[in-house]
Design brief:
Blueprint lengths: L9 E4 L8 E5 L4 E4 L7 H12 L6 E3 L5 H4 L2 H7 L4 E4 L4 H6 L7 H4 L10 E2 L5 E4 L2 E7 L8 E5 L4 E5 L11 H4 L5 H14 L3 E4 L8 H17 L1 H20 L1 E3 H10 L1 H10 L5 H14 L3 E4 L2 E4 L1
Parallel strand pairs: 3-4, 4-5, 5-6, 10-11
Antiparallel strand pairs: 1-2, 2-3, 7-8, 8-9, 9-10, 12-14, 13-14
The structure holds zinc ion.
Amino acid sequence: MQQPILPPDITVFVRGWLSSNNILIRGREACALIDSGYVNDAPQTLVLVKAALHGRPLDVLANTHLHSDHCGGNAALQAAYPALITHIPPGLSRFVSQWDPHALTYTPTGQSCPQFRFDALLLPGSEVSLGDKTWQVHAAPGHDPHSVILFEPASRVLISADALWERGFGVVFPELEGVDAFDAVGKTITLIESLAPRVVIPGHGSVFDGVEESIAVARERLDNFMRNPAKHISYATKVLLKFKLLEVQSVELSTFIAWARATPYFGLIFKQHFPELDISDWVEQLIDELVRSGVASRDGLMIQNA
Ligand SMILES: [Zn+2]
Protein backbone atom coordinates (compact mmCIF):
# COMPACT_ATOMS: atom_id res chain seq x y z
CA MET A 1 0.00 0.00 0.00
CA GLN A 2 1.25 3.46 -0.85
CA GLN A 3 1.95 5.72 2.10
CA PRO A 4 -0.16 8.88 2.14
CA ILE A 5 1.91 11.96 1.39
CA LEU A 6 2.79 14.19 4.33
CA PRO A 7 4.25 17.68 3.98
CA PRO A 8 8.08 17.45 3.99
CA ASP A 9 8.41 19.20 7.37
CA ILE A 10 6.51 16.39 9.16
CA THR A 11 8.16 13.11 10.18
CA VAL A 12 6.17 10.45 11.99
CA PHE A 13 7.87 7.85 14.15
CA VAL A 14 5.37 4.98 14.11
CA ARG A 15 5.99 3.08 17.33
CA GLY A 16 4.88 -0.24 18.75
CA TRP A 17 1.67 -0.30 20.78
CA LEU A 18 3.33 0.37 24.14
CA SER A 19 4.23 3.85 22.89
CA SER A 20 2.17 6.33 20.96
CA ASN A 21 3.48 7.61 17.65
CA ASN A 22 5.73 10.69 17.84
CA ILE A 23 5.29 13.44 15.28
CA LEU A 24 8.26 15.70 14.56
CA ILE A 25 7.61 19.02 12.80
CA ARG A 26 10.71 20.87 11.63
CA GLY A 27 10.36 24.59 11.01
CA ARG A 28 12.87 27.18 9.85
CA GLU A 29 13.06 28.65 13.35
CA ALA A 30 11.78 25.98 15.68
CA CYS A 31 11.11 22.25 15.84
CA ALA A 32 8.24 20.59 17.66
CA LEU A 33 7.39 17.06 18.76
CA ILE A 34 3.86 15.88 19.43
CA ASP A 35 3.57 13.07 21.99
CA SER A 36 6.54 11.32 23.51
CA GLY A 37 5.69 7.61 23.96
CA TYR A 38 5.86 5.37 27.03
CA VAL A 39 8.66 5.64 29.61
CA ASN A 40 10.21 2.26 28.72
CA ASP A 41 10.80 3.50 25.18
CA ALA A 42 12.08 6.96 26.20
CA PRO A 43 15.75 6.19 25.33
CA GLN A 44 14.66 5.15 21.83
CA THR A 45 12.46 8.24 21.52
CA LEU A 46 15.50 10.42 22.30
CA VAL A 47 17.61 8.59 19.71
CA LEU A 48 14.92 8.99 17.03
CA VAL A 49 14.40 12.69 17.75
CA LYS A 50 18.14 13.49 17.94
CA ALA A 51 18.90 11.63 14.71
CA ALA A 52 16.13 13.43 12.83
CA LEU A 53 17.11 16.87 14.16
CA HIS A 54 20.77 16.65 13.03
CA GLY A 55 22.10 18.68 15.95
CA ARG A 56 19.25 21.21 16.10
CA PRO A 57 17.48 21.51 19.44
CA LEU A 58 13.91 20.44 20.04
CA ASP A 59 12.05 23.65 20.95
CA VAL A 60 8.46 22.61 21.56
CA LEU A 61 6.78 19.50 22.96
CA ALA A 62 3.00 19.11 22.79
CA ASN A 63 0.85 16.33 24.23
CA THR A 64 -2.54 15.48 22.74
CA HIS A 65 -3.50 13.97 26.10
CA LEU A 66 -1.76 12.80 29.22
CA HIS A 67 -2.06 9.02 29.01
CA SER A 68 1.20 7.34 29.98
CA ASP A 69 1.87 6.08 26.44
CA HIS A 70 1.69 9.66 25.09
CA CYS A 71 3.77 11.57 27.64
CA GLY A 72 6.10 8.96 29.22
CA GLY A 73 9.05 10.45 27.34
CA ASN A 74 8.34 14.05 28.43
CA ALA A 75 10.74 13.97 31.39
CA ALA A 76 13.60 12.55 29.30
CA LEU A 77 13.05 15.13 26.54
CA GLN A 78 12.89 17.98 29.08
CA ALA A 79 16.19 16.78 30.56
CA ALA A 80 17.82 16.49 27.13
CA TYR A 81 16.53 19.89 25.92
CA PRO A 82 16.41 22.24 28.94
CA ALA A 83 14.87 25.13 26.95
CA LEU A 84 12.00 22.92 25.72
CA ILE A 85 8.55 24.56 25.98
CA THR A 86 5.95 21.92 26.85
CA HIS A 87 2.27 22.37 25.94
CA ILE A 88 -0.44 20.18 27.46
CA PRO A 89 -4.26 20.21 27.27
CA PRO A 90 -5.79 22.17 30.17
CA GLY A 91 -8.04 19.47 31.67
CA LEU A 92 -5.59 17.79 34.04
CA SER A 93 -2.94 20.51 34.14
CA ARG A 94 -3.34 21.25 37.85
CA PHE A 95 -2.58 17.60 38.58
CA VAL A 96 0.62 17.95 36.57
CA SER A 97 1.54 21.05 38.62
CA GLN A 98 0.90 19.17 41.86
CA TRP A 99 2.08 15.89 40.29
CA ASP A 100 -0.78 13.63 41.33
CA PRO A 101 -0.19 10.23 39.63
CA HIS A 102 -3.57 9.02 40.88
CA ALA A 103 -5.58 11.81 39.27
CA LEU A 104 -3.40 11.48 36.16
CA THR A 105 -4.54 7.77 35.96
CA TYR A 106 -1.02 6.30 36.19
CA THR A 107 -1.57 4.68 39.60
CA PRO A 108 -5.10 3.37 38.93
CA THR A 109 -4.08 1.79 35.60
CA GLY A 110 -0.83 0.35 36.99
CA GLN A 111 1.23 2.31 34.46
CA SER A 112 4.33 4.47 34.92
CA CYS A 113 5.05 8.03 33.91
CA PRO A 114 7.99 10.06 35.27
CA GLN A 115 7.14 13.52 36.54
CA PHE A 116 7.38 16.32 33.99
CA ARG A 117 6.57 20.03 33.94
CA PHE A 118 4.53 22.10 31.50
CA ASP A 119 4.86 25.69 30.30
CA ALA A 120 1.77 26.34 28.21
CA LEU A 121 -1.77 25.06 27.61
CA LEU A 122 -3.35 23.79 24.40
CA LEU A 123 -6.71 25.50 24.79
CA PRO A 124 -9.46 24.08 22.56
CA GLY A 125 -10.55 26.75 20.09
CA SER A 126 -7.10 28.33 20.05
CA GLU A 127 -4.18 27.88 17.68
CA VAL A 128 -0.63 26.78 18.29
CA SER A 129 2.44 27.33 16.21
CA LEU A 130 4.26 24.06 15.46
CA GLY A 131 7.19 24.34 13.09
CA ASP A 132 6.32 27.03 10.51
CA LYS A 133 2.58 26.47 10.53
CA THR A 134 -0.35 27.32 12.71
CA TRP A 135 -2.38 24.38 13.95
CA GLN A 136 -5.93 24.49 15.27
CA VAL A 137 -6.54 22.95 18.67
CA HIS A 138 -9.86 21.08 18.97
CA ALA A 139 -11.35 19.38 22.01
CA ALA A 140 -11.75 15.65 21.32
CA PRO A 141 -13.47 14.03 24.32
CA GLY A 142 -14.42 10.34 24.31
CA HIS A 143 -11.33 8.16 24.67
CA ASP A 144 -10.13 10.74 27.20
CA PRO A 145 -12.37 13.64 28.25
CA HIS A 146 -9.39 16.02 28.16
CA SER A 147 -7.80 15.02 24.85
CA VAL A 148 -7.21 17.50 22.06
CA ILE A 149 -6.56 16.91 18.37
CA LEU A 150 -4.53 19.21 16.11
CA PHE A 151 -5.49 20.28 12.59
CA GLU A 152 -3.51 22.24 10.00
CA PRO A 153 -6.08 23.59 7.49
CA ALA A 154 -3.75 24.40 4.56
CA SER A 155 -2.37 20.86 4.22
CA ARG A 156 -5.49 19.35 5.88
CA VAL A 157 -3.34 17.16 8.10
CA LEU A 158 -4.99 15.97 11.31
CA ILE A 159 -3.15 14.67 14.37
CA SER A 160 -6.00 12.58 15.75
CA ALA A 161 -4.45 11.05 18.91
CA ASP A 162 -6.70 8.14 19.99
CA ALA A 163 -9.95 9.75 18.81
CA LEU A 164 -9.69 8.14 15.36
CA TRP A 165 -7.47 5.32 14.18
CA GLU A 166 -7.43 3.79 10.71
CA ARG A 167 -9.76 1.09 12.03
CA GLY A 168 -11.40 2.32 15.20
CA PHE A 169 -10.42 4.44 18.20
CA GLY A 170 -8.92 4.02 21.67
CA VAL A 171 -10.67 2.49 24.69
CA VAL A 172 -13.40 4.82 25.99
CA PHE A 173 -11.94 5.16 29.49
CA PRO A 174 -14.77 7.12 31.18
CA GLU A 175 -17.19 4.28 30.34
CA LEU A 176 -15.07 1.93 32.50
CA GLU A 177 -15.67 4.24 35.44
CA GLY A 178 -19.41 4.26 34.75
CA VAL A 179 -19.36 7.70 33.09
CA ASP A 180 -21.23 7.95 29.75
CA ALA A 181 -18.81 8.86 26.99
CA PHE A 182 -19.93 6.96 23.87
CA ASP A 183 -21.90 10.05 22.78
CA ALA A 184 -18.73 12.13 23.11
CA VAL A 185 -16.88 9.62 20.91
CA GLY A 186 -19.60 10.03 18.26
CA LYS A 187 -19.48 13.82 18.45
CA THR A 188 -15.70 13.83 18.11
CA ILE A 189 -15.95 11.60 15.03
CA THR A 190 -18.48 14.06 13.56
CA LEU A 191 -16.11 16.94 14.34
CA ILE A 192 -13.32 15.12 12.50
CA GLU A 193 -15.64 14.53 9.56
CA SER A 194 -16.45 18.26 9.44
CA LEU A 195 -12.73 19.12 9.35
CA ALA A 196 -12.43 16.88 6.25
CA PRO A 197 -8.78 15.94 6.78
CA ARG A 198 -6.79 14.71 3.77
CA VAL A 199 -4.33 12.76 5.89
CA VAL A 200 -4.60 11.54 9.48
CA ILE A 201 -1.66 10.90 11.80
CA PRO A 202 -3.16 8.67 14.50
CA GLY A 203 -1.82 8.10 18.00
CA HIS A 204 -1.11 4.48 17.11
CA GLY A 205 -0.62 2.72 13.77
CA SER A 206 0.28 4.02 10.32
CA VAL A 207 -0.57 7.38 8.81
CA PHE A 208 -3.66 7.03 6.61
CA ASP A 209 -5.86 8.78 4.08
CA GLY A 210 -9.25 7.59 2.86
CA VAL A 211 -10.62 9.15 6.01
CA GLU A 212 -14.31 8.61 5.07
CA GLU A 213 -13.78 4.86 5.25
CA SER A 214 -12.06 5.10 8.65
CA ILE A 215 -14.90 7.25 9.93
CA ALA A 216 -17.41 4.64 8.77
CA VAL A 217 -15.45 1.87 10.52
CA ALA A 218 -15.23 3.93 13.73
CA ARG A 219 -18.98 4.61 13.68
CA GLU A 220 -19.75 0.94 13.19
CA ARG A 221 -17.46 0.01 16.07
CA LEU A 222 -19.08 2.65 18.25
CA ASP A 223 -22.58 1.37 17.38
CA ASN A 224 -21.46 -2.14 18.37
CA PHE A 225 -20.16 -0.95 21.73
CA MET A 226 -23.31 1.11 22.38
CA ARG A 227 -25.51 -1.89 21.64
CA ASN A 228 -23.33 -4.16 23.75
CA PRO A 229 -21.36 -2.19 26.38
CA ALA A 230 -20.11 -5.43 27.97
CA LYS A 231 -18.10 -6.02 24.79
CA HIS A 232 -16.34 -2.71 25.29
CA ILE A 233 -15.64 -3.47 28.96
CA SER A 234 -14.09 -6.83 28.15
CA TYR A 235 -12.09 -5.35 25.25
CA ALA A 236 -10.86 -2.49 27.45
CA THR A 237 -9.81 -4.74 30.30
CA LYS A 238 -7.87 -6.95 27.89
CA VAL A 239 -6.16 -3.83 26.46
CA LEU A 240 -4.96 -2.94 29.99
CA LEU A 241 -3.66 -6.48 30.56
CA LYS A 242 -1.97 -6.54 27.16
CA PHE A 243 -0.38 -3.14 27.86
CA LYS A 244 1.19 -4.55 31.04
CA LEU A 245 2.38 -7.60 29.12
CA LEU A 246 3.97 -5.37 26.46
CA GLU A 247 5.78 -3.62 29.31
CA VAL A 248 7.01 -6.67 31.24
CA GLN A 249 7.08 -9.14 28.29
CA SER A 250 6.90 -12.18 30.58
CA VAL A 251 5.29 -12.74 33.98
CA GLU A 252 4.13 -15.58 36.20
CA LEU A 253 0.35 -16.06 36.05
CA SER A 254 -0.11 -15.63 39.82
CA THR A 255 1.99 -12.43 39.79
CA PHE A 256 -0.03 -11.09 36.86
CA ILE A 257 -3.31 -11.79 38.67
CA ALA A 258 -1.95 -10.25 41.88
CA TRP A 259 -0.90 -7.15 39.92
CA ALA A 260 -4.39 -6.81 38.44
CA ARG A 261 -5.99 -7.28 41.86
CA ALA A 262 -3.77 -4.53 43.29
CA THR A 263 -4.43 -2.16 40.37
CA PRO A 264 -7.43 0.05 41.25
CA TYR A 265 -8.89 0.21 37.74
CA PHE A 266 -9.44 -3.56 37.65
CA GLY A 267 -11.20 -3.45 41.00
CA LEU A 268 -13.36 -0.57 39.79
CA ILE A 269 -14.34 -2.29 36.53
CA PHE A 270 -14.92 -5.55 38.34
CA LYS A 271 -17.10 -4.02 41.05
CA GLN A 272 -19.16 -2.06 38.52
CA HIS A 273 -19.69 -4.81 36.00
CA PHE A 274 -18.99 -8.30 37.35
CA PRO A 275 -19.71 -8.32 41.11
CA GLU A 276 -21.02 -11.89 40.90
CA LEU A 277 -17.66 -13.34 39.78
CA ASP A 278 -14.42 -13.98 41.69
CA ILE A 279 -11.90 -11.30 40.66
CA SER A 280 -8.98 -13.76 40.23
CA ASP A 281 -11.11 -16.09 38.09
CA TRP A 282 -12.26 -13.12 36.04
CA VAL A 283 -8.68 -11.91 35.39
CA GLU A 284 -7.51 -15.44 34.54
CA GLN A 285 -10.39 -15.80 32.12
CA LEU A 286 -9.38 -12.56 30.37
CA ILE A 287 -5.75 -13.74 30.19
CA ASP A 288 -6.99 -17.00 28.62
CA GLU A 289 -8.85 -14.93 26.05
CA LEU A 290 -5.64 -13.02 25.24
CA VAL A 291 -3.87 -16.36 24.75
CA ARG A 292 -6.69 -17.68 22.55
CA SER A 293 -6.59 -14.58 20.37
CA GLY A 294 -2.82 -15.01 19.90
CA VAL A 295 -1.60 -11.81 21.58
CA ALA A 296 -0.22 -13.68 24.61
CA SER A 297 1.11 -17.18 25.12
CA ARG A 298 1.11 -19.47 28.12
CA ASP A 299 3.91 -21.85 29.00
CA GLY A 300 3.03 -23.66 32.23
CA LEU A 301 2.74 -20.92 34.84
CA MET A 302 4.37 -18.24 32.70
CA ILE A 303 2.46 -15.77 30.55
CA GLN A 304 4.38 -14.22 27.67
CA ASN A 305 3.72 -11.33 25.36
CA ALA A 306 3.14 -12.57 21.80
ZN1 LIG B 1 -4.80 7.51 25.16
